Amino acid sequence: MAAVCVLLLWAVSLTAQAAPTLDVTGDEVQLRDFPVGVLIDNAQSLDYPAAREQTYALTDSTPNLGTGASVTWHRIALNNPGAETKALFLHLPAAFQVRAIAIYEEQSRRLVGQARVDLNNASDNPLMHRGTIVYPFSVPAGKTTVLYVRSQLYSHQWFEAEIYDDKHSRQALATGAHLDIALLVGMMLALVFYNGLLYFATSRKENLLYSLYLISGVIWIALSYGLIAQAFNAYGDAVFMLNLSVFTMPIFLVLFMMVIFETREFYVTEHRILQGLLALLVAGLCYGFFDIEGALVPASSLAALMMVVTSSVSVSILRKGHPLVKFFLVGHSFFIVFNGVAVLFYKGLIEPSYLNSHGVGIGIVLEAITLAFIISYRIKVLEDIRTQQDELKRQAATDPLTQLYNRRYFMAQSEALAEQAKTLGAPLSVMTLDIDHFKAVNDTYGHHAGDLVLKAVARNLQKFSRDRDLVARFGGEEFVILLPGADHTEAEGCAERIRRGVESDAVQAGDEVRVRVTVSLGVAQVDTAKESIEAALNRADKALYAAKTGGRNRVCVA
So where does this one cross the membrane (predicted)? Predict the structure, then answer.
C-alpha cells in the first residue's frame, strides 16, 4: 500500500513538473527563460484534441532536441491572478527555421483561438515579422490560458519562445535586428570582394576557392541566424535549399587546402585522403539536391569527420615542413573548437547559449580571417620569388660592370625591333663605339682605372642617348647602340653628342689621378627591307674602323 502511494505521489509530481503554470503579474511582462512542457510526435499523428491529453516532459523555453524530433508540441500555461485581463504576445524568434507552426489557445479547456503559419506562404502572413512569429492572446483575470504550439521541422528542431506585453513586444521586434550577424556577414563580404579582385589580377585558383568558401559561409550564416529572413522576408522550402552551403563550405575549404599546400605534387598520401573526404562531401551535396532534409541529418557527423581529417592532414603536412600549415592550423583550430561546440548543440547534447548557437558563424569568420592572412603571406612569398627571378633575368641580360645590356640580350631585342620598324616603315640605325687607346689606360693606370673609365663611358652613353635606344656593351671597350626611329642623320647627331660628352668627362682614378679618354664611333642606317641587324653592324664597324684610321675621336657614317 505504501509503495502504491509513493508511485501515485511520483506521478502527480511528474505531471506537475510537465505542466508548469506561470503567473503573469505586475504591469510589465517580459518572459524569455521559463519552463514549458514538450512532447515529441515523430509519428506526426497527433492533432490538438489528442495532444492536449498527453503528458508533457519538462524543458525550458529554448530547448534543442537535435535531429531526433520530427514534430514537437510545446505547452505553455499562464495564470493571471490579477483583477484585469492581460493582453500578451507569444514570440517565436526561430520560426524562420521550421516548415510550419500551429498555435492553439485554450481557456477553461475550450479552444478560444488558433493560428497556423506555413513557412512556404509566410511572406504575407500578418503573424510573421521578419522571421519571428508574433501571436497575440489574452489571459482573463483570475483564469489560466494554455498555449499549445505544434512545430514541424525540416532537419533540426528549433524552438524558442518569449512572452511579452505590448510595450516589450514592440521593443523586442525593434531590437532583434541581428546586428552581430550583419557585422560577421559584412566582414566576410569585404573579404570576398578583396579576393575577387586578387583573382582577376592574378588568376590564382586559391583566391577563387577562398572566395567561394567565403560566399558559402555568408549564405550559411545569413540563413541560419535569420538575416535572410529579416532582410528579404523569405522563408520555406526554396530558402531551406540554401542549407546546401553546409556542404559547399567544406568542399571549397578542402579544395583550397589542396591548392595552397600543393598536395598533388608534394604530399601524395595526404592528397588522396583529402580526395576521399571530398568525395563524401560531394556525395552529400548531390544527395541534398534530391532530399535536402535527409542529407542534413548526417551533416553534423560529416562535419565532425571533416574536422578530424583536415586537422590530421594539416598536422602531417606540418611535420613535413610546409611553411604555411602552422598558420592554417591556427585558424582551423578556431573553426574546430567553435564548430565542435555547435555540433554538440545541434545534436541536443549541450544547453543553449549564445556561444553554442553561434559557434559555426564565429568559427567560420575566425578561420576566414586566418585564411586571408595565409593568402597574403603566400602572395608575399610569390612576389619575393618573382622579384628574385626578375633579378636573375636582369643579371643574365646585363653586363655586370657597366650595368648595360650584354651582347646576347642586344641581339635578341634588336631583331624584334627591326621587325617592328619594317612593319611600321620607320627608320632604324645602329652605332658602334670603341674607346681610343684603352690598352694604354690599363697599362698606365691599372685595370681598376680601366674599369672606372668603362663605367664613365657607359654613363655618358645613357646620358646622351635617347630613352628608347638600346645600349649594350659587346665586350672589352666595345659598345653598341640601336636607335629605333632614327635615320643616319639623327643617329650621327646622337653619336656626336656622345663623342663630345666622353671627351669632356674626366675620370677620377685616384687621389691625384684624372683620366681623360676619347671614343671613335661608326654609324649605319639599317635597311630593314633586306638587311639584318648583324649586317648593319658590320657596316657600322667598317665606319668605326674608318674613324680610327682617320685620327680617332670622330664619327663616321657608313
Answer: 181-201, 208-228, 240-261, 273-290, 296-318, 325-346, 358-379
CA angle, corner 38, sides to 37 and 43, nearest 5? 150
pLDDT above 60 for 290 = yes
Which residues lie closer than 8 Å to 517 by C-beta, 6 or more apart?
A: 435, 436, 437, 438, 441, 453, 457, 502, 507
Backbone angles phi, psi at 416, to 5 degrees: -65, -40
What pLDDT is stored for residue 181 in this prediction?
75
Among 277, 281, 196, 211, which residue's Cα sits nearest to residue 244? 281
* CATH, domain 18-175, list 2.60.40.2380, 2.102.10.10, 3.40.50.300, 3.60.10.10: 2.60.40.2380
Q: Which of 71-75, 238-242, 310-314, 330-334 has the lowest mean pLDDT?
A: 330-334
Confidence at 359, pLDDT banded by 50, 70, 90: low
C-beta separation of 480 from 498 below 8 A: no
Query: What SS3 class is residue 511?
Result: coil
pTM of the model: 0.64
Joined grid coordinates for residue 534: 648583324
CATH number for 407-557: choose from 3.40.1360.10, 3.30.70.270, 3.90.1170.50, 3.30.465.10. Answer: 3.30.70.270
Active site residues: 477
